[in-house]
User: Fold this.
Amino acid sequence: MKSTVKSTIFILFLLALLTACGAEEDTTGTSSVPAPAENEVVNNTVSASTEAKEETQLFTGESFSFSYPSSWKDADLNIPQVVAAFVNPNPKGGFVDNLNLIIEESSATPEEAANLSAQGLSNGDGGELIQNYKKLNYVDVPEKAAGILEAEYTHGELNQQVVLTQYFVSNGNALYTLSISYSKTSYDNGGKATIQNILDSFKITESAMNSIDTSANADSSLEGFTEENIFAEMMAYIIPTEIEDGALDEKTYNYIIQHHQLFPAVTPEDQKSAKAEVDPTITSRHLLKNLNPYLDKMMEVSGYVIDITEEELDGGITIAEIHIIDDNDNSIVGFYANSTGDILEDDYVTLRGVPATYYSFDNISGGTTISILLGVSTIDKVE
Assistant:
């Protein structure tokens, strides 16, 4: 399933925090390191030209390699997801230029990962230290199965502009995210050229690029699953386990296959597509009268969460079950193949999805509740 890039954003937040804590106190906003004379080389860096590139050295990991400024030091983060991190020990100003690489199990494409990162940071997931985030540009690099996301933000504590460049590389099974942060001043004075050097040097070993061929079959529980059919097959499995003699209707199965990118819809583009698919005339009242005409239609329903659970399955897949009572006082049970974030019991949410079948269960009053089972595309918390 597609990564939410939450760990990437957490690492960026941590680096932003460390750069604030590690900076020397300087009320003038300039570094205490003496300015080099014209054409002087400091730490193998030519200071005379804004286009000068820092001298680099090669770092080689188990499945990758890249070059980084030779004057930079290991950040010693001691975080499992971070396989490499380096910082500039001699920053010119308060912000400490830095880079880090994380590797996550994910089938997200570079563009999907970039969209998720930009969306999360734009929505404030970077905390108080990453403020006024603005996406500048995204460039797809298909020949390397990669993409480059460029952005700017204001460091909340230092009140400095920072240029963030993220390089996403996928082998279909794992996502490599190289994040490089420079103060705007450093970026404009040689940092841009250095970043390009780093990106050009980044390589994933051939064995790692081909790992999907073997790892995809390593977990027998995922054998035969593809990105196109995995949610449809999950629903086809869930319904008989929840409902005696229950089965996923062929119309619903085919709809999910044809719109597989919407289950779940996690990128802004897919979420927009899911909303466009919604038939606004369908309500739970229509479904309870006769479900059959709507088994291949996207609907939208809002209500209060009665119960919500999440379970991590084999292969790194998360499945959430959400039970709501909608605005018509009808019961809806939805299954969603992703984390629901900060949504909790009693929250008011909007679900979009395709109806699959009726669902009945004993209620606390001693009777039976008839519910509609939904394959969920999106779930939004309504404040």
